[in-house]
Amino acid sequence: MTTNQSIDPSAAALLPVAKKQGISTVWDRHKAMQPQCGFGQLGVCCRICWKGPCRVDPFGDGPQVGICGANADTIVARNVIRMIAAGAASHSEHGRHIALALLGVAKGELPAYQIRDEQKLRSVAAKLGINSEGKEIAAIAEEIALASLEDFRNQDHDKPCNWIASALTAKRLERLAGLHVLPHNIDAVITQIMARTHVGCDSDPVNLILGGIKGALADFDGMCLATELSDAVFGTPSPVVTAANLGVIKEGAVNIAVHGHNPLLSEIVCDVALLMDDEARKAGAKDGINIIGICCTGNEVMVRHGIPLATNYLSQELALITGAVDAMVVDVQCIMPSVSEIGACFHTEIITTMDDNKITGARHVRFREETAVENARQIVGFAIDAFKRRDPLRVNIPDFKQTAIVGFGTEAIMGALGAINAEDPLKPLIDNIANGNIRGIALFAGCNNTQVAQDSSFVTIAKKLAKNNVLLLATGCGAGSFAKHGLMSQEATDEYAGESLKAVLTAIGTAAGLNGPLPLVLHMGSCVDNSRAVEVAGAVANRLGVDLDQLPLVASAPEAMSEKAVAIGTWSVALGIPTHLGIMPQITGSAMVTELLTETAKELFGGYFMVELDPNQAADKLLTVIDERRKALGI
Ligand code: MSK
């Protein structure tokens, strides 16, 4: 059962409920917004100063420059790199928050947190060139935190950020340095983008785009540190069996949805929920407290602790329309402002927690790492109180959930491969790529977008690539799509993988103790965890003595939406990865910018954007690119 708005059966079940109750959803608002502004779609609307807004006439009859004289190329380039700056700021602010927390842990100032994975901490130290020999864990943590914060402070323009320098192949670093796009300081690079796009500054579209690429690489730096430090503090993901889709909501439990991105709060909510379970039962919840995830906070706690994922971005409102979510606790990013209005239609507490991310109408609990347990107790208490007000007659939990095996970070993938060859874990992967059992690797990332039926492009492309023996990795709301639709299960491998891919996944999964194949799509984590895929790819490239742009590796963001997705897609291109977009990017008002990002980028970086809105054709194009790369490698 699907609709033309979503292929998620939960949406088909709940959208009529919303309609009957007069609750508008993201799909209603999308419809009301039609027709959308053509100038904006082409990227040729400029709102950078108050002489405007200006827009260039794409048909050539009207104005061809803005009032200041900026042409379409300049306007488009400025608009898109401002999006990159916002994406980089979002990921990197998340990273800074974790780095500061790590520093607090190291200094013994944050008793709610510990270093849960000391081995990871030591491996991070080694990556950053920090000697951890004979040092106390706290001392190592402090050095790592300071080295990470240095990426926000360094003023030496010739010294690249610590994390990017540790994460990329030497060849890639050399190429990026040659193009002057290696970031030296995340904050400075974001500020430079904002400064150079002010009225009357940089108007050279090529120069602007290169500045944007530097910003995207700053985004990558922030993601690397957010991911790796989170692993040290909260634990490194390992394979865990869980479930996904709205059927994970339990009628007999106090359901608390954790939503957003940053694990600093959600981790403590999970811990505190266990301690307050009896309180929930006393309030009448026979199944105690049930934590469920939405978006990337959901992915963070899913891959680390097996907390079930309720849904991904586009159907966050539908979780509330079940009438059985007692509290939705949000931190930062991708939270629709509409949730407070919908929560108010029910008994649901919408609780914001970050001082710089409030929502009108929501309750605010001011979260501080120093008072994390107290804050979490207060939040869980509000959820229990709300449960008592729940109207059982308005509960509509769709009976859809799928088993998902998740938690395939770099270490878990290497661990699974190590079960086949302990001495040389990469060898089974490389051998199977070389002999064609694995035709290539595809990383799926990015969001949902109302411009395409929710999850449909992810699922269509993945099934076609899997049938053609492509190994599939996923993060963010893409991972959420696959989990909800059962593609992170062993059964999916049996059903959809091509014969040679199935044999490889079965051999690795069985050797790794999974009693069967690895799931069809490997869940690597949240949006910031895209850095994990680069780490695996970098290890393969180093081992083969090649650069990332030579590997049969592609990326796809078929339902991209956010500024963060623009930043991720751009660094993916800069790292040499052909990157598919299934949504028309808002750049086509400039032939020059479009050519730069889809063609010239190939010469400069090896990676480039491929735009294809039809998911079947997108899969074919990705297969063609994989084959080109194989041919060039002589395999
Ligand atoms: S949450 S950025 S909708 S992936 Fe990471 Fe999902 Fe995109 Fe937000």
Outline of the structure:
The protein has 635 residues and is of the alpha/beta class. It is built from 26 helices and 16 strands.
Polypeptide structure, described:
This protein is an alpha/beta fold and 635 residues long. The protein has 4 domains: 27-68, no CATH class; 72-234, Substrate Binding Domain Of Dnak, Chain:A, Domain 2 (Up-down Bundle); 246-394, Rossmann fold (3-Layer(aba) Sandwich); 402-633, Rossmann fold. The protein contains 26 helices and 16 strands. A 6-stranded parallel beta sheet has the order 6-5-4-7-8-9. Helix 10 packs across helix 24 (563-574). The model has no long low-confidence stretch (mean pLDDT 97). The structure holds Broken Fe4S4 cluster (MSK). Its cofactor is [4Fe-4S] cluster. One of its GO terms (molecular function) is anaerobic carbon-monoxide dehydrogenase activity.
Structural class: alpha/beta
- How many distinct helices? 26
Helix content: 40-55%
Task: Compute the average pLDDT.
Answer: 97
The CATH class of the largest domain: Alpha Beta
Bound molecules: Broken Fe4S4 cluster
Query: What's the Cα radius of gyration?
Result: 24 Å
**How many strand units?**
16
* Total separate domains: 4
